[in-house]
């Protein structure tokens, strides 16, 4: 089970220096936090000179604290006309500040107006205090802050990135020894890029020894303020210290080759289009229908919310990360003038029974979730929120709700602008690799387009197009029901549970959806309409009248087909070379995901089931990061749980593939 986040406690010493009662240590030198960040971490890593002329430069920090190092690095990057095209700043933090305390700390300590303005921007985007990885974007996505909330001992080994500079910060080794162990430095060595540098205010002997053991060379230089010495150095291993190399920045792609084909224009494909175009990629979109969002993504509305489980399961962790990232991307689209159509914030989940209501309330408390993420609600409170009686209580997602998927797809394509070429009515048959290019053919064998990268995001057709054999997917028929205005009680917000009810504009209520495995019937069934209404009535007794009085044969609705895997997780990432893995099956029987041969330039984003709204944006960001060699927006273990090669890997481990 994930450890709950315990926020930092902000205090000040008599001289005004921010202080942590938990660690009995200061957050920065009493001589000055901004000056310390510049002297120790920027100059100690030869910045800004080292990022000049680079496309991507990545800093990894071992303790975010107040974020002063990030703000100073951001300011230096902004002020440098020769800066890198993109700056990634990745930082871990076990005890993040609440928003109120972070603002209080900045108000008390930052006098520089430039840094104060950046601090204001950061606090405006400060994430909810829930465990996991949070990706924040600034400067139109050219400055990316990836915050990992959790214990660095556990989170650093899960990072997938190539670091160019390390900021070894955190409280003093004597106060916080867990952050200065050989295991921590081994995790840093695993992600260090060629020539990666480091800097730290400490010069303790055991730190020097640990650095040396992990392949770093160090030297002592003048310290800052009252400290006589500090350490700087670089990664220069004399022997192999890691099994796998970190990802290569921008991969093999020159700027003029940055062209990708995205097959499928539903939620998965359109999210992919937006994330690639945001990085300057030219995208060709191929869609078999006449417009975007015509299959499962074409439903009139869909709900989005996190998933709560007692043990904080993999599905819960991936869904939490996806939900929070999606909210950021949608807000960014709105700022760009491409607002998707969605309802007011707020979604209520009704417990199946009183035992579930009690146990989930206990889980929410045990996991330490803040009320802005999720909060338990009694039946009486839930009734006030919904505006009608409910069968029982449950829990409220204040930032959950509903959105029109087609409007989201349209907004994402609009944000791509002139970088997007759209081709509709195209039925893709297969893709073939030749040299450094992929050729996409239609079902008649005619060549459609060539590009170095192809992302298959076409749900049920994806495995066939990509030539994948180890993809145990199934189709689930889902029928929605639209209740006209006046035929159902008016809801105050979306409600989910046994089924769901969404209050759409003009008084229409959307209910659903049926769940029928491997049923290909596209026609509306009166029985399906009745089933949807009756399930809602179990949560909302006021809907019993609608079930009794409705003529199911006269109701409008929609049928769509969800694509799901046997483990109900999506297929997101670089596709494995199944033929090569089969030939090498004996050697790969004990393989890990990073050991598998991959098909260069071929990626998949499909099998989103009913969670496309919360998985699509994060999945697209993960694939774009893999393509570009950027830090991943998700912990590596979670990325492996949605890796399209995971079923191949299981077959290899079980010995069911003969080489």
UniProtKB/TrEMBL annotation:
The EC number(s) attached to this protein equal: 2.1.1.61, 1.5.-.-
Q: Is Secreted included in the keywords of this UniProt record?
A: no
Which cofactors are named for this entry? Answer: FAD
Keywords linked to the UniProt accession: Cytoplasm, FAD, Flavoprotein, Methyltransferase, Multifunctional enzyme, Oxidoreductase, S-adenosyl-L-methionine, Transferase, tRNA processing
Q: Where is the MnmC-like methyltransferase domain?
A: 116-234
Species of provenance: Paraburkholderia kirstenboschensis
Q: What is this protein called?
A: tRNA 5-methylaminomethyl-2-thiouridine biosynthesis bifunctional protein MnmC
Per its database record, what is this protein's job? Answer: Catalyzes the last two steps in the biosynthesis of 5-methylaminomethyl-2-thiouridine (mnm(5)s(2)U) at the wobble position (U34) in tRNA. Catalyzes the FAD-dependent demodification of cmnm(5)s(2)U34 to nm(5)s(2)U34, followed by the transfer of a methyl group from S-adenosyl-L-methionine to nm(5)s(2)U34, to form mnm(5)s(2)U34.
Family according to the record = In the N-terminal section; belongs to the methyltransferase superfamily. tRNA (mnm(5)s(2)U34)-methyltransferase family.
